[in-house]
Amino acid sequence: MKSVLKIFVFLFFSSVALCIGSVEPSNKVRLQFRWMHQFQFAGFYMAKELGYYRDAGLDVEIIEGGTDTDVMHKVIAGEAEYGVQTPSILVDRSKGHPVVVLAAIFQHSPVALVVSRESGITSLAMLSGKKIMLGAKNVEIRAMLKSEGILDKVEIIEFSGSYGDILSGKVSGASGYVTDMSYVETQTEETFSYIRPETYGIDFYGDCLFTSESEIKNNLDRALRFREASIRGWEYAMENPEKAVEVIKRKYGSEKTVAQLLYEHSQMNKLMHTDLVEIGHINPGRWKHILETFQKIGMIGGDYDIKGFLYTDHIEDDHNIARAILLFLATVLFAVIVIMYLKYRKEKIKKTLEEAKHKEELLKSEARFRGLIEFAADGIILGSNDGYITEANQAACELFGLERNQLTGKHFSEMPFTKESLEKCPPKYDLLNQGQIVISERIIRRPKDDTEITVEMKTKVMSDGTYQSIYRDITQRKVAEKEVNSLKSWFEYVLGATKTGFDIIDEDNNVIYVDPKWAEVLGDYRGKKCYQYFMGRSNPCPDCAMPVAFGKGVSAISEEFLKKENRLVEVHTIPLNETRNGKKLVSEFNIDITEKKNREKSLMLFMEAVENSQDGIGMASPEGIHIYQNKALTKLLGDFGTDPLNVYADKEAGRRMFLAISSGERWTGEVKMISSGGEIRNILLKSYPVFDLKGKITTLVGIHTDITELRKHEEILLNFNAELEKKAAERTAQLEEINRELEAFSYSVSHDLRAPVRHIIGFTDIFAKEFSATVSEKGKEIFAKITTAGQKMERLIDDLLMLSKTNRQEMTKSPVEMGTIVNIVLADYKECKENRNLVTVIPQLPVVKADRNLITMVWENLIDNACKYTKNKETSKIEIGFRTEGSEYIFHIRDNGVGFDPEFTHKLFGVFQRLHLDKDFSGTGIGLANVRRIISRHGGRTWAESEGEGKGASFYFTLPIN
Known about the structure:
The chain is an alpha+beta fold and 962 residues long. The protein is built from 33 helices and 32 strands. Strands 2-1-3-10-4 form a 5-stranded mixed β-sheet. The protein has a 5-stranded mixed β-sheet with strand order 7-6-8-5-9. The chain is flat and about 180 Å long. The N and C termini lie far apart (124 Å).
């Protein structure tokens, strides 16, 4: 009979194991993000950083996403086990993709439609007929547009990644996250408005953690461990944003600033409602509402069933299967009992006695159990399935500072836990109901003495629905951990501040530990051979100090070149009095001496440069004792000995120099010194003191330049200059005499030329009037030509005198308003204005410092020139203006006259140079030459431009601004 029962029990538990057991899954998993590193994924970073994944038996690789990342397909294709996606994952599920949601990170979606505030768009109706940018997974916005009936009335284009397209008007709106977009608004003058889906009744979850059905079916336990560790990471990240931001910047290289990441945290807090809802919470009823929304707008078919989409569905299925198997096996068991009933009847009395004995043993066992509970070192509390305490041992009473009758009957929510510890680690009823043991830390404020202790709490719901909690006082452990962490952080800080790397290596060259700062630079290379990772070698380094440290048990120092880091370190290898896996250990302090070696090398190069300098360089102590001289100084002045004053021809001058630099001053001057050949040499001496970090003089330096030959050449040059100045003065006197003679000659010539020319003009005019009746037409024509030639001769004499006067006239510079002068000159051309249609364009001109009379002559010549060469135009246009370029004003005058051939531009400003016939345009060819001379005397330049005959001309001149 007993053997039959044994066989049955074996079959029963074997069947259960086959039905609910699974093969141990791999601990390596991959998590795929849909976007680049930022606070949006902070909880996952912290779960990895703080070792929550590792504690759950998982080795997690985090994969960054981007604009084109399709997270769902990567998970289904097996490129990642887990992913983060928007509620669009439900649409993917409806299309046959076997995905399962594990947790909702955001209780409300951060997605919004971003529009420019200046556009005035405040509702969806105003977007009709306009263009917007959306990503493929922006289902919330598409649902919002569909619900308002304008999805077909807007043009949707692919998201470009730039919100500048909104401000430029290229598009009217784009999808965005309010968690980071509103930060842009706080930092710039360009502001945005947001149209939120919630306003239109579209209230979806935000980022969702999901996996594949294959992962759920084959590795359900791993998926649950991954979910739990991730949520722990999120709880820490939301409570400690500064630490999370530091990790995101340091380990994941986020391009966002610290301020942006912290702002993102503050906005996410509003969407996650961590004060009201447990992070990761998913409500099946809410998902059904999201499904109904998708069905209403046509994104999912009306007959679709959400069953199997949430991970809880699969857990319940597993439980149902297990219950069905157990029910089946119970039925089989009952049948066996019925069959064997008759056989049992014979042994009924015996069995009754055995049961009585067994009951007695149970009572004794219960008594022993209660004794164990009572005298256990840890506090133990038992409770009912509705949360009330039914029993507590003495250790629990002492931990909570309450009597037993004060604990029993109290509801769990009335326990004296601090509010902060409850908020930091809230009860996890879902995990308890799944049969998991929940481990958490809480702080108890004991009402008896108002003191606080920290306890580690392990809670499990029993098969009958009651619960059991074990409390252990870890206050001292937490203090010790804090002290250890402080010492560790101080140690790591000192290592980082001194650029010292620290590692521990065993006698097989395996790296056991490396400090975090080095790990940041080199990566985690624990378990690798030190020579492979650092040196890129396949064998141990020949000069390594570790064999000495291991063999002799003493510290050793060596220098190593780290190939991977391209730097030199001084390695202090110290044997440790510990072993790991039976292997001896050494610690290494790797002190960066790259800069030190570079300084030594630079010093050597400096000394080489000093030694090979062409100037003589010497050094002395602050007491005046000569300690060094380079080759050039020895060649020039010989060996100084110990007294540097030995080489001074004037030793008193040397003492004054040493007194000056010994008191901290620099000294430069010319001294006479005795060369190695006994000659007196002129030396340019530059001396200065050298100070240490405390301001104390350590060395006196002197730089000696032999200027003997230079002084000889200077003397020759001075004599030459004196002779040259004498000749220049004589030549200047001769030129002044010649100029006076030329001036007298020009006045004499002008007077002597004017009289005959005026006589010719006057007598010709009298003759033409008195004898006009007797003179033939041919004669009249001749007289007219004589008169015209005489007048031209008279103008030429005046222009020559003016040109001569321009060179001789003394300039008197004063502030001159250019606009006033131009208007005065134009007013003198009344005839020009009256005879034809003249249009002038004159902007406000600057005030310059110049000779007023000479500048007036410039404008008279240029304006006369413009009026003259536009006389054949129906409308004469003259434009006057200026611009500033560098330190000059550049003035211009443009006309629409006959212009000139650019090939002959160089002749325009020459004396008597004319590019047009006198019969077409009268003139002497002196006006522009006069302009160039006046502007040159003012330090300016002149030039002209034209595109050719009949295309007008532009004349330019410059004047200094100051």
